[in-house]
Structures are given as C-alpha cells and as structure tokens.
Model the fold of this input.
Amino acid sequence: NPKVLFKAGFLNKIIKLNSIIALKLGKSKFNLTLGIKRGIYDFQPYFDDIDNLLEKYPNFLYVANIRDPLKRFISCFNMFSDEDQPFRTKQRADVGKSVKSGIENFDFFIESSLEEPNHHFWPYSNLINKIKDVNNKLIINCDEISKNWNLIKSRLNLPNISSNAPTVYINKSKSNIKKSDLSKVQIEKIENIYKDDLKTYQSIISKSW
Done:
C-alpha cells in the first residue's frame, strides 16, 4: 500500500500513499486529528485531504513510496482472504464482502473492490500527482524500498532505532496468488480499474514524470 514521508523544522512525518497519511508531529500551530501512534518512530495515521497539508505545510519533504498497481491489488487479495489475518477478514466481513482464498474467488474480489471503502484499494494517482510540482520531494519504487531505506532516513533525519523488523519485505500471507496465476481477462480488468495509477507508476519508473 502507496508511503509518503516528510520533515520540516520541528515536524517529522510520514505519509502512506496507499492514501492513508501517517505523521509524526512535534510542535504545530495547526490542530490535526491523528490516529494512534504506531511503529518504532511513533507515526500517526492522518486520513484527511492532502490539500490540507500542502496548504499548511508547503515546505515538507514529501517522499512517495509507490507500487505497481497490479502487484498491489494481488497483495490485497492475499491479505484480505487470509484466514490467519482475522483483522483483515473482519474488515471485509463488516462491509459484506468476505472473500476466501483461492484463485476461484479472485473474480468476486475484483468486482467487489469497486465498492470497497478500505484505503488499501484507493487509487493513488490523484494523490501522487498533487505533489508533482512540490520542489521538496523524493519518489521511491516500492520494489526498492529496502535498498532505499537508508536514503529515506537520511533525508528525513530519522535516528537509528533498533528493531526486530526484517530488512527485506517478506509476504507472510497464507494466500499466495501471483500474477502468473491470473488470466489475461483478470489482468485487463485490474489494469482498467487502476489505469490512471498504472500510467502514473510507469511514467515515474521510466523517469518521465
């Protein structure tokens, strides 16, 4: 899911460009409603409009961690259909869209995602393009996030904090559907849903953005 990190003065923050924004705020003259602290850096989720941040904090360093839209969607299926992740399966059940693992359930997942309120499914192109003209930004390919983590920490002036978290991402979902398991029709359906995201992703990866 699509992270933005930013820093300015007394403020240290991270935005997750899966459409959820995470912040770590020091002193701030603005009253922002934030969620609970999480992770070793105590970042807090912020679900409001990014325009609000662009207006109030124009000097943030905006770091976008973007992911291939197709890989992202397949990852969502593996996560939300994994019976070993009760929190995720409950999120789907709460909106009447429970899904079981197995490729035979993938078509239902595609169709039901069109009405899915969870931020993991939100398109990210609009959010990403809003920081296109921001001078102080850093765009990271999700596939290279581990390699670029030291660069991100340096740009954000984040301290070194010991953690048991793996340095390389490991997919722990019980479900393990891959792109090669999908039909051409299924791939085309997903790419059509996220066509703007795909265009944005490809332009950034090709460095034409």
